[in-house]
Specification:
The protein has 330 residues and is of the alpha/beta class. The protein folds into two domains: 129 residues, Rossmann fold, CATH 3.40.50.720; 186 residues, NAD(P)-binding Rossmann-like Domain (Rossmann fold). It is 36% helix and 14% strand. The chain is built from 13 helices and 13 strands. A seven-stranded parallel sheet has the order 8-7-6-9-10-11-12. Helix 11 links the parallel strand 10 and strand 11. Helix 1 packs parallel to helix 13. It is globular and about 75 Å long. Bound molecules: (2R)-2,3-dihydroxypropanoic acid. (2R)-2,3-dihydroxypropanoic acid (DGY) binds next to loops.
């Protein structure tokens, strides 16, 4: 019997994924789920064939250079890959794979939850009931804004953006988007989507902005201070992609000053740290905050695990991993 390939798994994985993984590989997922230091990753990687990492691991050039020669591949348990230096991996001849497609719907659901949370003050209302501060129904209490007829502008119209747009259509929102390229005509028609070549012009006209682009060197702070200041006073921002795409400090200042209506955020610029000012704004009912749970469904996690296994297995069997991420995709 040939020995199973050896993996370093940096975090705990759901039990169903762990069981599958242990059938295929010699792998022990991190039992206490503590984030490993670079030195611990290097030590743990000794003699391993591949690394199974997550967005909480910073797989930068310095770490990649120190990896033992036995490591032949890096697979991330995520669709996002901004935590891996793809150019450094390529230089070392290490393919990188991710888990696209299987978390699209879960993330799109959370975007809608945040939109409704922000526009209809869902969490403020829930807290009022929970804290027993709600007195009675009133004509002026907890007034939010309608979703129907509002203009929803997407920054990024890939798989997840499109899935959010499909849901948003059911709420009567008008779909607008800025993307590197317009989507295929059949998709634009299905979504009734208007393409804006100019991000600035779109931002200045929307009621809600949904951030759905990957975080790459090219999209870092693309929603810069200058651009955020273009937003209308009544506008909300929803971000289920990555915090680094927006200038979070400026976003906070604009909400504090009442220059933007509010935000619904699942991701943060300095994750897992959340700016205390955002927490204060959440207490004041100005923003809705979730703990990066866009892809957190049981079904999604199992499918992500399946993708990771297939990618590593395929590569170690001398074929191209189906979800290889290339630096040219940035
Ligand atoms: C991903 O897969 O990139 C998600 O953000 C993790 O939830």
């Amino acid at each position: 019997m040939t020995a199973k390939p050896k993996l370093l798994v940096t975090r705990r994985l759901p039990p169903a994924v762990t069981d599958r993984l242990m059938k295929e590989f010699d792998a022990v997922p991190n039992p206490d789920d503590r984030i490993l230091s670079p030195d611990e990753i290097i030590a743990g990687a000794a003699g391993k064939d591949a690394l199974l990492v997550t967005p909480s691991d910073k797989v930068n050039a310095a770490l990649i250079e120190r990896l033992p020669a036995s490591v032949k591949m890096i697979a991330t348990f995520s669709v996002g890959h901004e935590h891996i230096d793809l150019a450094a991996a390529k230089k070392r001849g290490l393919p990188v794979s991710n888990t696209p497609d299987v978390l699209t719907d879960a993330t799109a659901d959370i975007a809608l939850l945040l939109m409704l949370g922000a526009a209809r003050r869902a969490y403020e209302g829930e807290r009022a009931v929970r804290d027993a501060t709600w007195k009675s129904w009133s004509t002026t209490y907890m007034l939010g804004v309608h979703m129907t007829g509002k203009r929803l502008g997407f920054f990024g119209m890939g798989r997840i953006g499109q899935a959010v747009a499909r849901r948003a259509r059911a709420f009567g929102l008008q779909i607008h988007y800025h993307n590197r390229r317009p989507v295929a005509p059949v998709i634009a028609e299905e979504l009734g989507a208007t393409y804006w070549e100019s991000l600035d012009q779109m931002l200045a006209r929307m009621d809600i902005i949904s951030v759905n682009c990957p975080h790459t060197p090219a999209t870092y702070h693309l929603l810069s201070a200058r651009r955020l200041k273009l937003l209308r006073k009544e506008a909300y921002i929803v971000n289920t992609a990555r915090g680094g795409v927006t200038d979070e400090d400026t976003l906070i200042k604009l909400i504090e000053a009442g220059d933007i209506a509010g935000a619904g955020l699942d991701v943060y610029e300095h994750e897992p740290a959340v700016n205390p000012k955002l927490v204060r704004l959440a207490r004041a009912g100005k923003v809705t905050l979730l703990p990066h749970m866009g892809s957190a469904t049981i079904e999604g996690r199992v499918e992500m695990g399946e993708k990771v296994i297939i990618n590593i297995r395929t590569f170690l069997d001398n074929h191209k991993p189906p979800d290889r991420v290339l630096p040219s995709m940035l």
